[in-house]
Each structure stands twice: as C-alpha cells, then as structure tokens.
Amino acid sequence: QVQLVESGGGLVQPGGSLRLSCAASGSIFSIAVMGWYRQAPGKQRELVAATASASSTNYATSVKGRFTISRDNAKNTVYLQMNNLKPEDTAVYYCNAHIATMRWDDYWGQGTQVTVSS
C-alpha cells in the first residue's frame, strides 16, 4: 500500500513564501511523474506543477516564475517552493504521483491548506 503525506501548508501574507513537501511511502517499485494540484472553493482541481525529472518540469501559467517544483528521488519526496504568494493562490494543495507497485497507479495525498491573506 502506498501513502503520500503532505506538509508545509499554512497562512501567509501576500508576497510571502511557503514550501510544501510530499513524501511517498510503501511498497514502491518506481515513481514516474510527481506533481502538485490545487483546488480553490467552488473551482475545479487544477495542475500547479509536475516533474518527471530534473530536466522535465511543467508549470501552470499563473505560477511560472514564482513556484519551483523539485524532487529527491532517494527520499521519494517532491517539493513545491512557492514565492511571492498572492491571494488567488489560496487553495487546498494536493500531491499526486504515478507510482509502480505491482502495477502503475495514480496516488493522491490528503491535501494541505494554503491561505494567502493579510
């Protein structure tokens, strides 16, 4: 069984920074893409950033230049460094990973709240 455990959310003022972490654990054979999604109240869940490797990353247009995704393969962990946060970044952030155990499946974390407000 695979678990994704997120940490690092919280309340921050506009212009501030937060760093989210997501660690995968369990009977993992391999991890392909790891990424972050977010869902604001009344809106659909959307992709924020994803990475297949250090040279393969993808960002939503709204966060380019402000957010940075990275991963530590030895720790099965993905990070999201969020700088210059704006009120519109307020959402529940979910970690997602495409993981091989006996087969390939998508897994989700429980979500962590990020609130940007003065």
Model description:
The radius of gyration is 14 Å and the shape is globular. 0% of the residues lie in helices and 61% in strands. Strand 5 and strand 6 form a beta hairpin. By secondary structure, the protein is mostly beta strands. The protein has strands spanning 2-7, 10-12, 18-26, 30-39, 46-53, 56-59, 67-72, 77-82, 91-100, 104-108, 112-116.
Comma- or semicolon-separated keywords:
seven-stranded mixed beta sheet, four-stranded antiparallel beta sheet, 118 residues, mainly beta
- Helix run count: 0
Q: Give the low-pLDDT segments.
A: none
Oligomeric form: single chain
Q: What integer value in Å does the Rg equal? A: 14 Å
Mean pLDDT: 96
What portion of the residues fall into strands of 2 or more residues?
A: over 45%
Order of helices and strands: EEEEEEEEEEE
Largest sheet data: 7 strands, mixed
Let me know the number of strands: 11
Q: What is the end-to-end distance?
A: 40 Å
The class by helix and strand makeup works out as mainly beta
